[in-house]
Fold:
Amino acid sequence: MSELSVNHLLGIKYLNKKDIELIFKTADHFKEVINRPIKKVPSLRDITIANLFFENSTRTKLSFELAEKRLSADVLNFSSAQSSVKKGETLIDTVNNILSMKVDMVVMRHPNPGAGVFLSKHVKASIVNAGDGAHEHPTQALLDSYSIREKLGSVVDKKVVIVGDILHSRVALSNIYALQMQGAEVMVCGPKTLIPKYIDKLGVKVETNLRTALNWCDVANMLRVQNERMDISYFPSTREYAQQFGVNKVLLDSLDKEIIIMHPGPINRGVEITSDVADSRQSIILDQVQNGVAIRMAVIYLLASKIKQ
Ligand code: NCD
Structure:
């Protein structure tokens, strides 16, 4: 039987192409399950999973929780705002206390890049990174590629532009790794100040003109400006950003071909994308959310089957 090459999902960087193919194949099966009248399988009845969220989240947290429940795992939810972290407890102590209650897997979102890797070296549980600062967000990139594959048949040779705040985005980095591994061409587009200096090393194209970028691509993945990670101003005003880097319907309709619009959420309507674009026929934003549950079921199922061995 095929299995993942890793015991944790810490980043796309640690996966290989076969891992991604296995996750997608498993997600295909779970997607069929969640469309049945009884959307649940008993696979993980003997597994307990703790969701540790040290940073805000709506979609990702709900999506992981639903994925775990649809696999019949026992689920614990922890959010740092209401916890003893505020009383000075360290990350390792917090997690070891949770693990002593016989928890098998930890899904963690944390503001510090590398928090998942650190934890995986110090505690005995399978770790799933649900976003570590501006570093990686592997399940988001997996569900993004899975949604492209579903819409266009394959990711191979597809041209994908990631637009917006590349500098502060874990979604961008994980998407770049995942798309390149599967043979897609990747471009980033945004104000120069929001494109990291090390971008050349990632082997992606860089474009500062949005129309040129959109005319090049098959798929545009629109990112939110991550104001919460900014300590200085990276562009003059939100209005100017929207004018230069926001997609509106007039721009979309004037392109050479029909492209696909994606967004990881949360959307700032009227900034990176207007409502009529977000809700248009070309947008697959809600398919991404739906596929997120199947992808997370697949990741958790495959990691749990390694714990059970
Ligand atoms: C993203 C995140 O948290 O990194 N959202 C998500 O997980 N769906 C992107 C963002 O916050 O803009």
The mean pLDDT is 95.
